[in-house]
Structures are given as C-alpha cells and as structure tokens.
Amino acid sequence: MKIATYNINGINGRLDILLRWLEEAAPDVVCLQELKTSNDKFPRKAIEKAGFGAVWAGQKSWNGVAILARDADPIETRRAIPGGLTDDQSRYIEAAVSGVLVGCLYLPNGNPAPGPKFDYKLEWFKRLDRHAQALLDLDIPVALIGDFNVMPSDLDVYNPERWGDDALFRPEVRSAYAAMLKQGWTDAVREIYPDLPVYTFWKYWRNAFERDAGLRIDHILLSPPLAAGLQTAGIDRWVRALPKTSDHAPVWIEVS
C-alpha cells in the first residue's frame, strides 16, 4: 500500500496538478491539507473520475482536510480532534481505508510566537497527543498523516540558527512532537532516512526551492502494527518544481 500526504494549498486552483500527480504517482491513500474551499465546492466529481473515493472537511478560504482512496470509499470515523468543543477550524478528518485507520491533520502554524496563535497551536497539540495515545491503545494499523507545522530536529531545517524563535521550531513544539514519538509512533520518513536532510516545504521567495532551502514539516506517523511493514519512503520534489504549484511537495511511504 502506498500512502501519501500533500498540502495542496488550494485544491481548486491546483486541481490539474493534483490529478497529474495522482495519475503518475499512483498512491492508494492520500491525505490532503489546506483545501481552502467550502464543502460544497470540493471537486468530488473530478476526483472520482480519477478513480478515488473521498471524505473531506472543508472551510471557505482557509484550512480544510481530505482523505482519498484509490478504487475505494473511505469510511469516515471522525472529523475533529476530541476536546475542542469551541474549535471551528477544519483541521482533522479520520477514516478507515483497506484495514488501516488514517488520521489526516493540519496542525496550526502558531506564528507569531509567543501569542494567542501559538497558544492555540500548543492546545491543539495537547488534544492531538491524547487522541494519538487512544489510537495506539487500539493496537491496530494506524497512520497519522499531514502537515504538522513542526521541524522535529536540526536535520529538518536548512538553517536551524535562523528558526529558533519560529513557532514551527520552538522547543515547546519540538518537545510535543518528540512526546508523541515516545508513545510508540514511528516517523516513517526519518526511519528510512535517519541521517539525511530531506525537505517537504520550500517558501516561494528568494529561490528557496532552487537553493534547496527547505523544511521538513509534513510527516507520516505509523503505529507499531503498521510500522512493522514499512518498506520505503520518498518526497516527490518534481511536483514542487511545476509552475503555479503548492509550496509543499507530496510525501509518500510504502507498507506491506
């Protein structure tokens, strides 16, 4: 099974790019973030024509997440992280696909830090941490996938010294991510590439992509039953090189 995550940064504006990637990369399960569209304007027909079933939680102009499955209809199990009764931001959706429980997330950016947005990020992370533990307790194949807006270590950022005060790299955020791994999750990309600087995001300005001045903020975390079958992983950098593309590249793994 090939499982992928892709922050599309506007699904309707970049639908042609998404469809091209789906055809060429042939993933079985895809988690999308930053749909930036309301539920009624999600391009369901085009995605179904491409051979994918889908569930999604949209939000006009902002946020939004979706799970796609090749030749299958994902069975939705949840569309919000527990505990956020007043949280109306569309940042999480969960579904069962071919024996795997998939949680697709778009964790808050949190900038500027410190401040209310950073407080929201830490609170959201706490809720995710509790839910992640509950998923592990099920002892089934689970994948938590998406844009975590976290660079876990110096290896995940092109110039660590410049990012010390950023909400994606502050100690509180890295500690929260590390705490999730200690629960028993496997960071699939780092498992395959333990010592290499691999990036998933490059800003649009200052030729960041051409200079490979990137960040690794898109992650695929696997529960032990799923991590046992991890075969390989990769980043489809060619998608980031296309005209009018997202500032993220698709990240994928293969599991048996």
UniProtKB/TrEMBL annotation:
Belongs to which family? Belongs to the DNA repair enzymes AP/ExoA family.
Q: What is this protein called?
A: Exodeoxyribonuclease III
Q: Which residues form the Endonuclease/exonuclease/phosphatase domain?
A: 4-248
- Which Gene3D superfamilies does this UniProt record tie to the protein? Endonuclease/exonuclease/phosphatase
Is Magnesium included in the keywords of this UniProt record?
A: yes
One GO molecular-function entry = double-stranded DNA 3'-5' DNA exonuclease activity
InterPro entries found in the cross-reference section: AP_endonuc_1 (IPR004808), AP_endonuclease_F1_BS (IPR020847), Endo/exonu/phosph_ase_sf (IPR036691), Endo/exonuclease/phosphatase (IPR005135), ExoIII-like (IPR037493)
Read off the Pfam families from this record. Answer: Exo_endo_phos
> According to its UniProt record, which cofactors does this protein need?
Mg(2+)
Q: What is its EC number?
A: 3.1.11.2
The UniProt keywords, alphabetically, are: Hydrolase, Magnesium, Metal-binding, Plasmid
Q: Which NCBIfam families match?
A: exoDNase_III (TIGR00195), xth (TIGR00633)
